[in-house]
Amino acid sequence: MNTLRRFYNEYKTKIWTVILVIVIPIIIIQILERVTINQNNRTLERAQLEAGWATPAIQVPVQETNPVLNEETISESQAMQNRNLISQFIGYANAGRVEDAYNLLTEESKQMHFPTLQDFADDYYRRIFSEHRMYNMQIWLTSGGRHTYRVEFLPDILSSRRC
After folding, report:
1. Domain boundaries, the chain
2. Please, which of 35, 128, 137, 146 could form a disulfide with 151 given CB 3.0 to 4.6 Å?
3. Helix %, strand %, coil % for the chain, to 5?
4. pTM
């Protein structure tokens, strides 16, 4: 123990210099990364608003990477892509852009449920989006690169706008 104490006392300025040289750049990198991520998110939100299909006030945070029904997680970037796609769909629907929302559906979904735009408008859009909607989404299941989300639509009590 005395040798360790003697070693520390003899080299403490060098030890602390090495620690600071290692720790300070790591902290600076993390801060710059956070700033960049926040700027990118703000740029994306601005672009969504300009495109007319997103309203930040109606976006509710998603449980990003941990599905409810299984243990397989997804990456944050994949979760962000999924969330943005769902948000874009709902933004289009809330804005009354039925055809744009329909075009975001997969071909498989179109074939199975809504073969035509009119079917989609009649059977889904008019029933769910009769008024402006807020939403809450949560990833339920992920398997083989496919992700299933539970999307709960809620009345937007703060909105006076009707579709």
Report:
1. 1-51, 55-155
2. 137
3. 60, 15, 30
4. 0.55
